[in-house]
Amino acid sequence: MPNETLTITDNRTGKSYEMPISYGTIHATDLRKIKVSDDDFGMMTYDPAFMNTASCKSTVTYIDGDKGILRYRGYPIEQLAEKSTYVEVTYLLLFGELPTKTQLEEWEKKITMHTYIHENLKKLMEGFRYDAHPMGMFISTVAALSTFYPEANNIADPVVRQKQILRLIGKVPTIAAFSYRHNKGMPYVYPNNDHSFIKNFLNMMYSIGTHRYEVPPIFEKALNILFILHADHEQNCSTSAMRSVGSSHVDPFSATAAAAAALYGPLHGGANEAVLRMLDHIGDIKHVPAFIEKVKNGEGKLMGFGHRVYKNYDPRAKVIKKLADDVFKETGVDPKLEIALELERIALSDEYFIKRKLYPNVDFYSGLIYKAMGFPMEFFPVLFAIPRTSGWITHWQEMVLDEEQKIARPRQIYLGYDTRDYVGIEKRK
Ligand code: CMC
Which one is catalytic: 133, 307, 334, 395? Predict the structure, then answer.
């Protein structure tokens, strides 16, 4: 058994330092022993965008980016997508094990009992402009939940924590559906406790008047799978935001709003909307080669391609591509699919993309399915945020219970001015 230590020699001083290796990492603060003088602060690492820094220990989600592997609590994403339901996956993420039949029934019932939102929160949503982006409405309304449940501040109490977890999972579909109805100028539809989680959401989105909205079974199946695939993805930008903001011990609603804001960006959860805009912009299959050339010349990105962790086909994209076929059988093929397939074909055989290991990610095909199901483009990031809420809240709880965690506070390399004297305004040039 080799020594599980790392020896570093500082060539500035000739001194050597031995540091323990644990789980293939060294503790960054051990580097602080490396100093050139007694008053030296000590060595730090410089890692913009956390390219090579583990910020926590986690037992939730495993990714092997080179092999294209994704597992929740050890279960391969492909098996969960095929055999599980989104609600069961929320239980798995939060409690670490698949539920028994009774546990699942109880869990489902508890979530259902938390789907209604306060009437004043509904009024707050009514105050948005008619064309407000639904993700902006989602972020603000989730943040406003903290004003309705001030006890949520008590994050150390497991009973209080559990209550907010149920509220978040149960209420985000309602907030999402209300934001959609607001954009459409349609009356909000209240949750129906007789429906399953997915059916209830689709009913709040699409039912009108007394007409009973029949959820097409393939839509329910597709959304279930898409929600499972989007539920968690370890320390991505929004989950890191959730942990980072939550590390100040703010209530989980405020932290979730911050995570949702991080998700909104086009490089993260906003990418599914950006993919559809890109396909619109390309317009025709014959424009694909010219578009690819532009991307290669640095004029924009191929949205829905590339990933910080996956250097192989995103396993979620594989499942989604197959799912798209099933949905299109019901809805008819979207003409944009042809453009997407051609983009994928060219990109996967082009040296530029091969060299950089750029493959389709989860967002490349999800937007096409959402569009076929009747969701408007602006709504796509919201459809990402609903299931990712369960991942965020799982990581939040793990962070709260982790004794090694403290308030997140990175260091910087200061490159600004040294001290200088204030100059009165009349003397400034
Ligand atoms: N199109 C064209 N070139 C790309 C792309 C792309 N989509 N992504 C990366 N590159 C190039 C990039 O320009 C760089 O080239 P070079 O080495 O010549 O400078 C190289 O590939 C490495 O890229 P990077 O920007 O260093 O990679 P990153 O890990 O910082 O970024 C990413 C990851 C997902 C932000 C990026 O691939 C991207 O912007 N993709 C498009 C947006 C997208 O689809 N996002 C959804 C991600 S999956 C869902 C989620 O988890 O949110």
Answer: 307
Angle 137-138-143 from CA coordinates, rounded to 5° = 100
What residue's CA is closest to ligand 1, atom 8? Answer: 306
* Residue whose CA lies nearest to ligand 1 atom number 45: 267
Domain boundaries, the chain: 1-44+411-429, 61-264+388-398, 271-372
The phi, psi pair for 84, rounded to 5°, reads: -100, -175
> At 208, is the pLDDT very low, low, confident or very high (cuts 50, 70, 90)?
confident
Does 230 participate in catalysis according to the annotation? no
- Nearest C-alpha to atom 49 of ligand 1 is from which residue? 268
Ligand 1 pocket mutation pick from 301, 311, 383 by most atoms within 8 angstroms of CB = 301
Q: What is the pTM of this model?
A: 0.94
Residue 209: the pLDDT is 74
Class assignment of domain 61-264+388-398?
Answer: mainly alpha
Q: What is the arithmetic mean of pLDDT over 249-257?
A: 98
Q: What secondary structure letter does DSSP report for 195? A: S
The overall average pLDDT reported for the chain is: 95
Average pLDDT over residues 209-216: 76
Topology of domain 271-372 in CATH is Cytochrome p450-Terp; domain 2 (1.10.230)
Phi and psi dihedrals of 298, rounded to 5? 85, 10
118 assigned to active site: no
How large is the average pLDDT for residues 384-411?
A: 98
Q: What are the two backbone dihedrals, phi and then psi, of residue 318, each rounded to the nearest 5 degrees?
A: -60, -50
Q: Nearest Cα to 270, choosing from 176, 380, 353, 166?
A: 380
Number of residues that make up the chain: 429
Q: How much distance in Å is there from the Cα of 41 to the middle of ligand 1? A: 35
Is 363 noted as a catalytic residue in this protein? Answer: yes
Q: Express each pLDDT in 73-129 by its tens digit.
A: 999 999 999 999 999 999 999 999 999 999 999 999 999 999 999 999 999 999 999
| Same fold? 61-264+388-398, 271-372 | no
